[in-house]
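Quick one, probably user error.
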């Protein structure tokens, strides 16, 4: 049994190393979502394996072992709030699994983080913690090796992506040749301007920045706590992470680091004051000198961090080069990555104010338990402020409130927000409290605990202007677990069984020595029944891993099918999408993509007079559109997709137009301030010959969004058909004056209408 215990313990320990190393680095280029989706599924898999090993070991011993921690109640109440919110959710499947392609934030992800936390404090010894920090430092350094060159136009990710694409047409030897690898080493594989704002293996600049600021305080202190090569590792990693932060140009990241640093300084002063009181001394200069002596390496690292900020500048300060040249640094022009709140035309602060107000309105409708975990993408549009239509990202789907706290308030209510704040308070408060109050701590350990607290504070500030992601959530749960383990007193002695084996051979007779050896040998031999429950646990783990694999496979096939369709390989594309639907059909996105593909094929067959095939695909498309909407009747995009499918097929079957109208009317109830819904409703009414209602819809659309160019163009055309020339002229002039001066159709329309008005005026003039 000792060997079995050793196997379980060592395997769990190594699994955490794999978890810390792989999660920040993991991404693919052949999924629907490249970064968070893969990281989340990997965390699910590791939580399943680690939790399974822990349960199997306890099942082998037929006993449940639990170490109580100060975090048990906060975590328990937080899970309870998520569970209650899921029960009362407007769409429980989303609350359980999370919003598709992200998954992080769903009930399952909370369970996964909790399992990883629980097993860590139960099975990991304090002496191994520094090994995990080395793993984190190494993976952070690799992340930096990807991020920093991106700033200079070279992305290691592009070597993988470009080589993968080239391998489809070129021999592998040519793809892997040094010259070809160098040609692939660029930043062209990303649509985003990664050179302007790096994101490495995280997908968005703010997500990379959040990772960096969480670990920066810890690694800066570790540079003083460790010696030799480890000191250099932490020092270099700290500087590299600072460059990641600077090159990400994340305002929330810089602000989080500043607040975390202030928090660190305040706690350090409180610790020094407490230390002076314990020594009955009042000489602050001596105390400060002693601290700086012990943390000289930290001072060097901190000085390097400040120097890097001066040289390269921050979103709030100019670079050294601009100061030398005495020219103001222009505001950076950014290209959208995925988080539209940090990029684009409208100032991100203005966008946040609008989305935050909508989040508060959602909470007012669901004050206690929220609309349901991770359902913001559905509930927000009922309360979407009209001002949202004036921003540059007005037609984007917002599945987060872009404020972690308001997101919890809107989706889990007051109960969820309070439990989250209590959990967060315990995560940052416990290490801070123990650093100052525990007299048994060394100065170095107190500094480390303060750095953990500072990292959590920095992350919380960043999350206030954004939202958490997989990797930082992993750190949020496991850094406090490490701080708790470091506060536990070492065992004074080994277990009684181990103590007994220390009896010297000289004190035993030969008979007793043989009995002791036989007992030791039998101790490693397990009865078959002792493997029964571990075997059951193992079977459950295997089934769980297969389920995770199927989820990943379905997403891969979905992305593959869409790619094949775009390259007009429809036969293979449909095959991939149908397989994806078969595997993951419970999620509406698979029926959505398959329905759109069927509608496209139906139209194609109708154009070549293949009536039978067109009818079959038309019926299949409508069926999939209905399935999609039935899977989630709260998803606004599904209503838009169903309308698009029905409207496209209406040329073959006009009876589909009333169904499209009905779909949009329901969508308008879900999103009463969405001008696109109203505009499309006008198009449907126009197609049905209901010009008066279409005009009312177009007018309502432009009232919601005055700079809605398409709606004004349609309205102008409708006015022209009704010979209401002044109204049509007003629409065209509005477009040219306030929306798009280069609109050729509007220019021609103005010229034509003015000519008609002039001609009519000439005819009426007296001769």
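Nope, works fine. Designed sequence:
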């Amino acid at each position: 049994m000792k060997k079995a215990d050793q196997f379980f313990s060592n395997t769990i320990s190594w699994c955490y190393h794999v978890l810390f190393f792989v999660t920040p680095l993991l991404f693919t280029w052949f999924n629907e979502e490249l970064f968070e989706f893969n990281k989340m599924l990997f965390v699910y898999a590791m939580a399943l394996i680690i939790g399974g090993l822990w349960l199997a070991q306890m099942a082998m011993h037929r006993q449940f072992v639990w170490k109580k921690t100060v975090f048990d109640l906060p975590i328990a109440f937080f899970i309870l709030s998520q569970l209650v919110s899921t029960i009362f959710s407007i769409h429980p499947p989303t609350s359980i699994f999370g919003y598709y392609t992200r998954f992080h934030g769903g009930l399952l992800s909370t369970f996964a983080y909790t399992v990883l936390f629980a097993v860590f404090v139960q099975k990991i010894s304090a002496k191994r913690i520094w090994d995990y920090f080395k793993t984190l430092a190494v993976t952070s350094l690799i992340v930096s090796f990807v991020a920093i060159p991106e700033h200079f136009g070279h992305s290691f990710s592009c070597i993988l992506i470009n080589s993968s694409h080239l391998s489809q047409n070129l021999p592998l030897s040519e793809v892997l040749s040094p010259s070809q690898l160098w040609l692939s080493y660029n930043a062209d594989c990303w649509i985003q301007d990664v050179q302007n704002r790096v994101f490495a293996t995280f997908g968005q600049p703010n997500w990379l920045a959040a990772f960096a600021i969480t670990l920066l305080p810890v690694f800066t202190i570790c540079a003083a706590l460790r010696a030799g090569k480890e000191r250099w590792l932490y020092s270099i990693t700290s500087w590299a992470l600072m460059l990641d932060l600077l090159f990400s140009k994340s305002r929330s990241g810089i602000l989080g680091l500043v607040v975390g640093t202030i928090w660190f300084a305040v706690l350090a002063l409180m610790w020094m004051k407490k230390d002076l009181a314990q020594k009955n001394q009042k000489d602050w200069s001596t105390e400060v000198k002693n601290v700086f002596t012990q943390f000289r390496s930290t001072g060097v690292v901190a000085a390097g961090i400040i120097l890097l900020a001066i040289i390269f500048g921050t979103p709030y300060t100019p670079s050294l080069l601009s100061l030398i040249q005495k020219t103001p640094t222009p505001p950076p022009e950014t290209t959208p990555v995925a988080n539209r709140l940090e990029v684009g035309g409208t100032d991100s602060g203005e966008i946040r104010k609008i989305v935050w107000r909508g989040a508060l309105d959602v909470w007012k409708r669901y004050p206690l338990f929220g609309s349901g975990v991770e359902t913001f993408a559905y509930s927000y549009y009922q309360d979407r402020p009209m001002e949202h239509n004036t921003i540059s990202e007005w037609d984007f789907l917002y599945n987060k409130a872009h404020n972690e706290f308001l997101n919890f308030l809107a989706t889990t209510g007051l109960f969820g927000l309070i439990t989250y704040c209590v959990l967060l308070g315990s995560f940052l408060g416990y290490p801070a409290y123990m650093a100052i109050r525990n007299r048994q701590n060394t100065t170095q350990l107190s500094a480390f605990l303060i750095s953990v607290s500072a990292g959590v504070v920095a992350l919380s500030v960043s999350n206030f202007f954004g939202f958490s992601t997989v990797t930082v959530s992993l750190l949020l749960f496991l850094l406090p677990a490490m701080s708790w383990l470091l506060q536990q007193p070492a065992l004074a002695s080994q277990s009684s069984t181990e103590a007994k084996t220390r009896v010297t051979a000289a004190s035993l007779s030969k008979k007793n020595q043989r009995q002791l050896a036989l007992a030791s040998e039998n101790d490693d031999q397990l009865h078959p029944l002792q493997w029964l429950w571990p075997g059951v646990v193992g079977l459950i783990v295997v089934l769980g891993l297969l389920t995770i694999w199927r989820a990943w496979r379905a997403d891969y096939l979905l992305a593959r099918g869409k790619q094949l369709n775009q390259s007009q390989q429809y036969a293979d594309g449909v095959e991939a999408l149908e397989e994806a639907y078969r595997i993951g059909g419970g999620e509406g996105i698979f029926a959505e993509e398959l329905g759109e593909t069927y509608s496209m094929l139906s139209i194609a067959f109708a154009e070549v007079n293949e009536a039978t095939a067109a009818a079959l695909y038309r019926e299949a498309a409508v069926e999939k559109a209905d399935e999609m909407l039935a899977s989630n009747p709260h998803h606004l995009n599904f209503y838009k997709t169903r309308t698009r499918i029905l409207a496209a097929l209406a040329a073959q079957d006009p009876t589909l137009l009333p169904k499209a109208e009905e779909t949009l009317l329901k969508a308008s109830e879900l999103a009463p301030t969405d001008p696109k819904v109203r505009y499309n409703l006008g198009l449907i009414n126009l197609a049905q010959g209901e010009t008066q209602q279409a005009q009312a819809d177009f007018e309502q659309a432009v009232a919601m969004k005055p700079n809605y160019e398409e709606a004004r163009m349609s309205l102008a055309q409708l006015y022209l058909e009704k010979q209401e020339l002044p109204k049509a002229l007003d629409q065209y002039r509005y477009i040219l004056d306030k929306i798009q001066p280069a609109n050729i159709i509007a220019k021609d329309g103005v010229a034509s209408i003015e000519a008609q008005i002039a001609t009519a005026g000439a005819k009426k003039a007296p001769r």
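Residues 2-171+182-486 form one domain.
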